[in-house]
Known about the structure:
By secondary structure, the protein is an alpha+beta fold. Helices cover 25% and strands 37% of the residues. The chain has 6 helices and 20 strands. α1 packs across α6 (317-336).
Amino acid sequence: MAAVAPLAVVGDRVLFDLVEVTSDLAALDAPRRGTWAVVLATDTEPVCARFARSRPARLWPGRPWPGVAGGPEAWTSSLDGPAYRRGVGVIREAIAAGDVYQVNLTRRLSAPLPPDADVAALGAALAVGNPAPFSAVVRLPALGVHVASASPERFLERDGDRVWSSPIKGTAAAEDAFLAKDRAENVMIVDLVRNDLGRVSEWGSVTVPALCAVEHHPGLVHLVSTVEGRLRPGVGWAEAVAATFPPGSVTGAPKIAALGVIDALEPVPRGPYCGAVGWVAGGGQRGALNVAIRTFWFADGGIHFGTGGGITWDSDPDGEWAETELKAARLVGLASAAPRARLGP
């Protein structure tokens, strides 16, 4: 891979001129200038990179994303269809035993990384083909961080002492295709997020201003709820993340028990997938982190992408496999397609 400079693209801003990198989330609340790009993976320390300058994103001026050689057929899965369906069955047995109520089961798709691949070019292609409200690109070559996210989901957003999360549970190809289990999934995770935010919020401030609202995104629709609260005095990003990470919508309920099931069933670590990516303004009073779904990352000579879904007692193994295919098809197609270009530095 050719040498490239550190940068981040968060929302409609490009961050550049890297001045500091730390794993200490408390630094996000320190009175420092600039903007932080944040990557929270599920199996490594946090990455907080402070950039001195930013500007609006514009048309990508560099070489376009080349596409994965061999197209969508070049991708392999960490769990094939039979293994994923067996995992659904194991989770249903755990639910029947009363160990869990819901578990998010995922799989990793991987393909050879194109020569001289630039994650910023991939992010630009995603911005054209799959625009998303919480999109993000973080490129930190010295740390081996190359992430491009087209996430539709808010993990944690802050404005002063107000903090809120918008978990997505329930995915379908059309609005009339939602199942009863989709709403049940959503309500269970709303309860979990209420509990998580309640650990760092003022007593009585946690509310649910939206429950199971329908959102339309490229190629599919989601049920989305919003939970918000007011942070207690002295609570910053480190405490808020400790109380809520990893996101409930991509783990399950109860969270600790669900994580145990995930560890037993998923053969590879999730990495940045199902973590969080986003930005925090210097001083910490404003910022937004996504749930890193619909997310690509580079590692070990490959390009990787995660896909999965929430499993409940009502889950059908064939239907759950089909949902993972639906969630992956558009994004993997874009990453495998001929060059396209747009937003970048």
